[in-house]
Write a structure and sequence with these properties.
Order of helices and strands: HEEEEEHEHEEHHEEHE
Structural class: alpha+beta
Radius of gyration: 20 Å
CATH class of the largest domain: Alpha Beta
Strand content: 15-25%
CATH topology of the largest domain: D-Amino Acid Oxidase, Chain A, domain 2
Length: 233
């Protein structure tokens, strides 16, 4: 949401971002060996304004329902209200009645910086100023994860048109089982990857590692620092 401040550093029209709030509800596996009662995401028919609320299983086997899509005129964020949590639970049970036997683990919310389609169009916004070597990528919505590598290649091609891309390397990641064992043993909300200790930020991942590791509760993590708000049950 602070992207408009960075964009204002260069000449030209500035962007105005509208905070959009999304709330999610997490269902916890009754036991580490429990299988989710659905195998694929199930959602509503998308509208021009939003893709709607989805119910889906995580890679760990827990189940999530969300997000809501609420416009805000401020960037502060609180934990989801009881009314929102109850509404998300009703939606989840409509889609998958078997979830009535699954305990609710917690809820969380986050904000995304949306651009109004009436002003900026409904597609991603990618614009470059070659003289300033400045490229803006904004308005990236739900398909942003899929499109991220292609967007990065396009931006690099504009910023470094005559130079080859540098070689890259990635560390070997531990298995989910190894991460869960480490997460449960440490009990400080961290895991070790490539010899370094990392906080696990995302509520879906924290819940999944805790349940897979045999913990009865989710270890407290660091302050969200504006990344979102989470409430464990």
């Amino acid at each position: 949401l602070g992207a408009s401040t960075a964009e204002a550093l260069v000449p030209g029209p500035t962007l105005h971002f509208q905070p959009r709030r999304g709330d999610y509800l997490l269902f916890r596996r009754p036991s580490p060996s429990s299988k989710p009662p659905l195998s694929t995401p199930i959602g509503s028919v998308p509208t021009p304004a939003a893709r709607g609320v989805y119910v889906w299983p995580t890679v760990h086997g827990d189940v999530v329902v969300g997000p809501t899509n609420v416009k805000q005129d401020h960037s502060s964020i609180d934990a989801p209200s009881k009314e929102v949590v109850a509404g998300l639970r009703r939606k989840a049970l409509q889609v998958c009645p078997a979830l009535s036997d699954w305990p609710m683990a917690g809820s969380y919310a986050g904000l995304r910086p949306a651009l109004e389609p009436q002003q900026y169009g409904s597609d991603f916004l990618v614009r470059s100023d070659d003289d300033l070597a400045w490229t803006t990528v904004a308005g990236v919505r739900s398909t942003g994860l899929t499109a991220s590598l292609g967007l990065a290649e396009r931006v690099l091609a504009r910023l470094r048109p005559s130079q080859p891309l540098p070689p890259t390397s990635s560390p070997t990641l531990p298995s989910l089982a190894a991460l869960a064992e480490d997460f449960a043993a440490r009990r400080d909300g961290r895991v070790e990857v490539a010899g370094r200790s990392w906080y696990v930020w995302h509520p879906q991942t924290r819940l999944g590692l805790a349940v897979s590791g045999g913990l009865d509760s989710v270890p407290a993590g660091p302050a969200s620092q504006g990344l979102g708000s989470c409430a464990w049950l």
